[in-house]
Each structure stands twice: as structure tokens, then as C-alpha cells.
Specification:
The structure is a single chain. By secondary structure, this protein is an alpha/beta fold. The protein contains twelve helices and twelve strands. Helix 6 links the parallel strand 5 (about 165-170) and strand 6. The radius of gyration is 23 Å and the shape is globular. The termini are far apart.
């Protein structure tokens, strides 16, 4: 950069005519967020732990971001701990629950190892740590299947899986593939009542966690209404940077929290390490945008999603489209459409490979290496393998337009036509 040259304003790369409908996988930085990150990099570069003005400026920015996240969730600033992302936050909750189980045991207690209840459709950052702990004999887990009727992990089924040594129930707030919203508030209420009875029996308290990665920015998230002990926040799902945070109801007092790392004492020693000030500033700005606009975001995305589904039906015909995210009586994310185009040779990956402008996925981005195998989430919802292997997940965003939907559906039509021509020849 030459002397006197002003830094360019941060810009997010354009997609050069492509139609991006994969917002459940990740979102681009909002311009206001990119600006906040840039400003922090240039102006708040001091170490937040330093007492001089450069450090104080960074510390002030971090405090402001913490307040914005707390406001977004209906919690308190002191209930927010910054993490590297959702995976770390989820692992920290599991680690904490196991530690708390052992710490709460009395002499002569023969309850064995900690037990955790979760659903069969959780993100890998819940499923894989539990499977690893099971392999090592350090914990056991029950994966409650979702109901084919509702697409939800039913509260009665979750409660039925609880054992005397259960220390944690973790249920995602909304599924990333089907968009189905889980009954977390009802589960929390029921577990709270159960904990009162367990206390009288000398059994450990059951902690409640929800991974809210997909819900934030697409609907109201209020920790008081949800009644959870822990809630995971993932910045890149709501136009923020790729860091995260964990909400804990009064960490270290009302709710246990054990660090996974040990170091300089940052984040009240719950998550030490010199804070990533620019990313935290960006996360705070992303939360502010949600605070101000979430109702408008939700209304717009629902309108465009409904238009997308109507256009798919009109274009392919009702007999050829199967909506995998429609479950009677269950609410779902405002932006998510999971569907299959019925017919031989129309596996989701093959269809997307023949699309010229549409950018989407067949399911969770973290499962992208699993080839044409049907989504385990869809199979667990009772969808047949033949239908599930044809599935596509389109997730619209804040700025998606009806005109883009029209182009995307036309692209799908030409892709299917090309595949059918290839099969016929």
C-alpha cells in the first residue's frame, strides 16, 4: 500500500451470476459485519488484557459484543463465553456435564459412568464426541430417534431414555436438513420438574443444552422461554464471522462450566487465550443486525421459501416432487426446503452436478464426502432410501429474491431434462 493510500472498504466476493441457496451451510459476511471486523483490525489491535489505551479499546469492543449477543438471546452479558465456533461450544458442554457428574458423586456412590441423552439427528459435533467417549468407556449415550410423524425428537421419548446416571440432555433447536424445530422449551420444563424429584432421591441434576446454530437470525430465540442451561451460537450461520459463543445460565454458579483449555485467564478462565477481537466485534455486529431486523428477516425468508415450494410444484408437477421437510403439526425454519425430484437416476448430487447456476447441497455440509448414500437424517425421519437419495436442500437467505428462485428452478428443470435424455440415449 503506497504512502497516503486509504484502505479499501471490505467487500464480500460476488458469485458472478450464480444463485446461492445454501444458507444453512454458511452465510456471507453482512457488509456491516465486514466493516466491524475491518475497523477492529485497524483500530482495536491492542491486547484486551493490557491496561493501556490500545488494550482498553479492544476490551471495550469485546464487552459491547457480549452485550449484543446477550440482548439477542434475552440473557445477561456475563452468561456469554466466546469460543472458536459451535464445535468447541458443543464439546465444552459435553465435557462439562461429564465432569459435573463425577464431581457431584458422593463417597460410595455406584452410579457408574455419566449418561447423556440426545437425538439421532444432531450435528456431528454432538454425535462424534459422544461416540468417542463411549469407545473409551468414559460415558454412555442414548440417541433418541425422531418420530416419522413429526420429524421431532418427541419429549416423551427423550424422557423415557433418561437413566439414574443421566447428566445431560442435548437437543438441537432446529434441524439443519429438514428445518424442523424441536420442542426444546417443553423438554426443559419437563426436565426441571424431573430434577426436583431426582434431588429428593439423591440423583444428579440433569443439565439441558440446545445447539441453536440454525435458528438464530431466522426466528426468535429467548433463553428464558427455552429454559435451557446452555445454548450454542454459531456466527457464520447468521452472516457473522466463523467464531461462536456459548450461553450458560450463570456460569460457574447456577450452572457448571469446566474449561477445556488452560492458559492466561481470559473469559474468566472458562475459555483462556488472547481474544480474537476483530472476529468478536464482527459477531457482535451480526447480533445487532438480528436484534434490529429478525422479524423482517424471518418474514422475507418465509415468503421466498413458500414461493420456491409453489414454483417447484408448478414446474415439476405434484406427482414428481416430494417435500421431505413437511411434517404435520411441526414448525420448521422459515428458509429451509428439503425435497426430492422423483425418478430413477435423479440422485441429488447428480442433479446438482448438471446445474449451471444453482449452488445448493444435498444435506449437511459436514456430510458432503459421503457420496450418494441417503441422508441419515432423512432416513431417521421415515423417508425411504429411494426418495432420500434424490434429496436436495435449498435454503434461502435474507437477500434471496423471487427472480432468483425462478432462475434456480429453471436450472433444476434443465438439469433433470439433461439427465433423462442421457439415460434414454
Amino acid at each position: 500500500m503506497g504512502a497516503g493510500t486509504e484502505p479499501a472498504e471490505p467487500q464480500c466476493d460476488s458469485l458472478e451470476g450464480r444463485i446461492y441457496l445454501d444458507y444453512n451451510a454458511t452465510t456471507p459476511l453482512a457488509p456491516e459485519v465486514a466493516q466491524a471486523v475491518w475497523d477492529a483490525m485497524c483500530q482495536a489491535w491492542g491486547n484486551p488484557s493490557s491496561s493501556h489505551p490500545a488494550g482498553s479499546k479492544a476490551k471495550e469492543l469485546i464487552g459491547s459484543a457480549r452485550q449484543s449477543l446477550a440482548k439477542m438471546l434475552g440473557g445477561r452479558p456475563e452468561d456469554i463465553i466466546f469460543t472458536s465456533g459451535g464445535t468447541e461450544a458443543n464439546n465444552m458442554v459435553i465435557h462439562t456435564a461429564c465432569r459435573h457428574f463425577h464431581n457431584s458423586r458422593k463417597t460410595g456412590d455406584s452410579r457408574g459412568i455419566p449418561h447423556i441423552v440426545t437425538s439421532s439427528v444432531e450435528h456431528d459435533s454432538i454425535r462424534l464426541p459422544l461416540e468417542q467417549l463411549g469407545k473409551e468407556g468414559l460415558a454412555e449415550a442414548t440417541f433418541v430417534p425422531v418420530s416419522p410423524r413429526s420429524g421431532q425428537a418427541e419429549v416423551d421419548d427423550v424422557l423415557a431414555a433418561i437413566q439414574p446416571n443421566t447428566c445431560l440432555v442435548s437437543l438441537m433447536l432446529a434441524n439443519n436438513e429438514t428445518g424442523v424445530i424441536m420442542p426444546v422449551a417443553e423438554l426443559s420444563q419437563r426436565v426441571c420438574a424431573l430434577n426436583r424429584r431426582r434431588a429428593a432421591q439423591g440423583l444428579p441434576r440433569i443439565l439441558v443444552h440446545t445447539d441453536a446454530a440454525q435458528m438464530i437470525g431466522k426466528g426468535r430465540v429467548d433463553v428464558q422461554e427455552l429454559g435451557v442451561d446452555y445454548l450454542t451460537i454459531v456466527g457464520h450461520k447468521f452472516h457473522g464471522p466463523r467464531i461462536g459463543a456459548l450461553y450458560i445460565r450463570s456460569p460457574g454458579t447456577a450452572t457448571p462450566l469446566h474449561p477445556m483449555l488452560f492458559g492466561g485467564g481470559q473469559e474468566r478462565s472458562f475459555r483462556p487465550g488472547t481474544e480474537n477481537t476483530p472476529m468478536i466485534a464482527g459477531l457482535g455486529q451480526a447480533a445487532e443486525l438480528v436484534n434490529k431486523n429478525w422479524e423482517a428477516y424471518e418474514a422475507h425468508m418465509r415468503d421466498v421459501r413458500d414461493y420456491l415450494e409453489a414454483t417447484l410444484e408448478a414446474s415439476f408437477g405434484k406427482q414428481r416432487i416430494r417435500f421431505n421437510s413437511h411434517f404435520k403439526g411441526s414448525k420448521r425454519l422459515c428458509n429451509t426446503c428439503n425435497f426430492s425430484i422423483l425418478g430413477p437416476g435423479l440422485q441429488g448430487r447428480r442433479v446438482l452436478a448438471h446445474c449451471k447456476v444453482l449452488l445448493a447441497s444435498v444435506g449437511a455440509a459436514c456430510h458432503s464426502e459421503k457420496g450418494d448414500r441417503p441422508s441419515p437424517v432423512l432416513l431417521s425421519c421415515g423417508i425411504s432410501p429411494e426418495v432420500a437419495q434424490n434429496a436436495l436442500r435449498l435454503s434461502v437467505g435474507r437477500g434471496t429474491t423471487r427472480a432468483e428462485v425462478d432462475r434456480a428452478v429453471q436450472d433444476l428443470l434443465q438439469a433433470v431434462e439433461q439427465l433423462e435424455q442421457d439415460q434414454a440415449s
